[in-house]
Every structure is written in structure tokens, then in C-alpha cells.
Amino acid sequence: MDHRWTCACCGQEFTELPLDVGVGEGPAPYEDLSDEERARASLTPDFCVIEHADQTDRFIRAVLEVPVPEFGVPFRWGVWVSLSDSSFARAKQLFPLPEMPADEPTRFGWLSSRIFGYAPSTLNLKTMLTFRGGNQRPTVAIEPSGHPLSAEQRQGISVARVQEIVAPLLHRSGGPV
């Protein structure tokens, strides 16, 4: 988004404020695998499956929106969420459909991304997913709890908080996220 702002930690001026930030190449359990272990995993931009000796873990990429009332648009985290076998199978069926069935229920999942800047960790927060059609990633709602991310999703965040979130990314990459 076009927005001129000055970084509070270094004084550098920016002309854009990213409102979409992806978290990780894959879900945290995938990122924790060695290169050798990744041979038993399948990762696409939207789905990840990890085969273990005794179980299979399934994940979907989703969008976690946090309201930014001052802008009237949300800040969006691209995150990964684990799903049960049946919910994962349903997600694969629904993903390419142009529209969702009107009676499609939300689905439970565990947040499977470590979102930087939050303590305690965001890993394994309880979530509910809402599937969308047309190859759009589902939206994710954090279960109400005392976790700061849950509170921010319910109450919204300020533009200053967005700047605080994206500043380390901009300094690391040298430009927009």
C-alpha cells in the first residue's frame, strides 16, 4: 500500500507499507525437517503433506486477516494450518470450485506457522478455517484466547503496529516484502 512512513528503530523512510506477509516456505514441521527428511514430504504453494513412519501430517496455506481500522483494509499473514485427513481431502475437492457450497462448515485446524514478533509462540494455536472457492486460500480465525495474535485479530491493530511488524522484514530484504 502506498504509505509514507519512517522506521521508528532506524529513521529510514519508506514509501510503501506491505499489508501481506508470508510466513515460511512451508509449515513449521516442514521447515524443521532436514534435507534428507524432506524427501518424504510434498510441498506446493498451497498444500503440504509429510509422511512419517506412523502418521501423515497435512497442511494448507491460509490467510489470517487482522483488521487495520485506520486503513479500512486488513493486514494479512500468509500462514499454514494443519488439517485432519477428512478436512484436507475436502479442501482439495473445494479448492478449484468457483464457489463454496452454501452449507460448507468451517473446519478446525492448528496454526502451523511460527509468526515472528509474538510471545508466546503462535505455533499450535487453535483455529477455524473458512474455505473459499476459485483457488483462493481459506481464511483462518484464531480461537479467542489470551494470546496476543488472537486479541489483535479480534480488536484490530494500528498502522504503527503494522510498521513495527514489517520493519524487520524490510531491513532484512532491503525492500518491500
Tell me briefly what this model is:
The protein is an alpha+beta fold and 177 residues long. It has one domain (21-155). The chain has helices at 28-31, 85-94, 148-155, 159-173; strands at 2-6, 13-16, 20-22, 41-43, 47-51, 56-68, 73-83, 107-111, 126-130, 139-142.
Verbal overview:
The protein is an alpha+beta fold. The protein has one domain (21-155). The protein contains 4 helices and 10 strands; from the N terminus they run βββαββββαβββαα. Strands 3, 4, 5, 6, 7, 8, 9 and 10 form an 8-stranded mixed sheet that branches. It has a two-stranded antiparallel sheet with strand order 1-2. The chain is globular.
Set down the secondary structure blueprint.
Blueprint: E1 2-6, E2 13-16, E3 20-22, H1 28-31, E4 41-43, E5 47-51, E6 56-68, E7 73-83, H2 85-94, E8 107-111, E9 126-130, E10 139-142, H3 148-155, H4 159-173
Parallel strand pairs: 3-7
Antiparallel strand pairs: 1-2, 4-5, 5-6, 6-7, 7-8, 8-9, 9-10
Order of helices and strands: EEEHEEEEHEEEHH
**Which structural class best describes the helix and strand composition?**
alpha+beta
Number of helices: 4
* Poorly predicted runs of 5 or more residues: none
Label the overall shape: globular
| Number of separate structural domains | 1
Helix content: 10-25%
Q: How many strands, which pairing sense, and closed or not: the largest β-sheet?
A: 8 strands, mixed
Question: What's the total number of strands?
Answer: 10
Global Rg: 17 Å
The rounded distance between the terminal residues' Cα atoms is 11 Å
Estimate the mean pLDDT confidence.
91
| % residues in beta strands | 25-35%
- Give the assembly state of these chains: single chain
